[in-house]
Amino acid sequence: MKALIIDRPGLQTARQRLLFGSMTVVFWALWIYLWLPILALIGWALGFRIAYYEMVVRNGYVGLVHLLGFYLTVIGCLGASLLLWAYYNFARFRNVIRRKSVPVSSRPSVTQRYRVSPELLAIWRHERRLVLHHDADGKLLESTAPALN
What we know:
Elements: H1 14-46, H2 49-57, H3 61-92, H4 107-114, H5 118-126, E1 131-134, E2 140-144
Antiparallel strand pairs: 1-2
């Protein structure tokens, strides 16, 4: 059975998305507002009278609002700097392809690099685990294939 609701948010204009997003925020705020009496009852039952006295009666919320305003300013500045940095990197690397695959080493280049025979290389390629021992100059001293436990 096909779904009865067509969900294609990519076809919405920016104005429609903004409208629907703001409506969602408004209705969530309304939903939370409707729960306030029950939350107040729970707070009263748990003894949050002191918090009410400090925040409402003594106007403690004023300091909180100023502090939250400062926090929002700092968060806004940090977010703006990250957006600027992202835009800078986008503009800088827009047409640059940096993710290139590593070229596969050919068998002759590996045998030449490690100075081994093609037969030994074929044995190495079938091992599940291989340990190569090198000297200080990077020259291959020996190879071992330890047994797996």
